[in-house]
Amino acid sequence: xxxxxxxxxxxxxGGSLRxxxxxxxxxxxxxxxxxxxxxxxxERELVAAIDSRGVTTDYxxxxxxxxxVSRDNDKNTLYLQMNSLKxxxxxVYYCNRHPVPLDSxxxxxxxxxxx
Length: 115
Description:
This protein has no helices and ten strands. It is an all-beta fold. It is globular, with a radius of gyration of 13 Å.
């Protein structure tokens, strides 16, 4: 299995970004998919999750109301729409499946929120 994350960049506080994660090498549709992030010198943390059908979502408290997770099973792609970005959202963002996450994480996509 393999993940390729994209869509990160430098954005001002209050701005928006849309991340994408393309999965390959395993059957995408049956799995819950999750977004994670890791800031410098911090542990990786769970940001958002979405069920296999794209119906049920769940968010960490620190992104509720600002981020929206979605998926396109026909394209094996997971998305994260991030609005009202804050400097504390600065991190490398990763995706993985659940359960049985792949040991080989993607390279992630860097999100930097700064004036």
